[in-house]
Amino acid sequence: VKVKIPFGNKYLDAIFSVPEKKSTYGVILTHGAGGDMNFPHLVSLAAYLASHGVLCLRFTCKGLNIAYRTKAFKTVVEYLKLSDDYKLLGVFLAGRSMGSRAAASVIRHLSQEDDDDFIRGLVCLSYPLHRPKLQSKLRDEDLLFIRCPVLFVSGSADEMCEKQLLEGVASKMKAPKKIHWIDKANHGMAVKGRTTDDVMEEINAQVFSWLRENIELEHK
């Protein structure tokens, strides 16, 4: 279902992937610095989640300014929260690369503003922890503030997220967290000798099983 979400004086293009049965939880998903919501990895994940009963709303926000991207993400969260069509108990914020930075930033901002528990967790696909070859400056400040569960799915050969550095940041985080390493994958999740579909299957299954664990924990 295509929708246009009001954002300032313009609109954000977004698409709902809707499960057959009514969903109580949703995932909001966005893209990295390049591309848009039709980036193949996002389309694949959204379809997988919807086929497993989780509503997925993915949206496009062009712009390389992290504050702008964060503002857009926050607008989408509010939009879904107030939606009459999909009454959800909670959502997980997810993004690829810069999109996951924006998601982390939204969670930090919202947690400082109110303590409702609409946001249940964060999924970071290829979180860009540092610029290539610039390991001394880590983009970890939002991560260290977050308290809700966090899943990282990163390539072990990601030039923007060195393995030891992410593990170091994770060990300092207060939030319950999990890292799933895609063996030999780079920042774009490409792995020599594996097809994109094969890699995506691994990512999608990991994301879904983590969501399911966290939704089940809620119900216990």
Layout of helices and strands, plus pairs?
Elements: E1 2-7, E2 10-17, E3 25-30, H1 40-51, E4 55-59, H2 66-81, E5 90-96, H3 98-113, E6 119-125, H4 141-145, E7 150-155, H5 163-172, E8 177-182, H6 196-219
Parallel strand pairs: 3-4, 3-5, 5-6, 6-7, 7-8
Antiparallel strand pairs: 1-2, 2-4
Helix pairs in contact: 1-6, 2-3
Characterise the protein shown here:
InterPro entries: AB_hydrolase_fold, KANL3/Tex30_Abhydrolase, NSL3/Tex30. The chain is of the alpha/beta class. The protein has a single domain (2-219), classed as Rossmann fold (3-Layer(aba) Sandwich). 38% of the residues lie in helices and 23% in strands. The chain has helices at residues 40-51, 66-81, 98-113, 141-145, 163-172, 196-219, and strands spanning 2-7, 10-17, 25-30, 55-59, 90-96, 119-125, 150-155, 177-182. A hairpin with a 2-residue loop joins strand 1 and strand 2 (10-17). The longest helix is centred in the C-terminal third of the chain and has 24 residues, at 196-219. The chain is globular, with a radius of gyration of 16 Å. The termini are far apart.
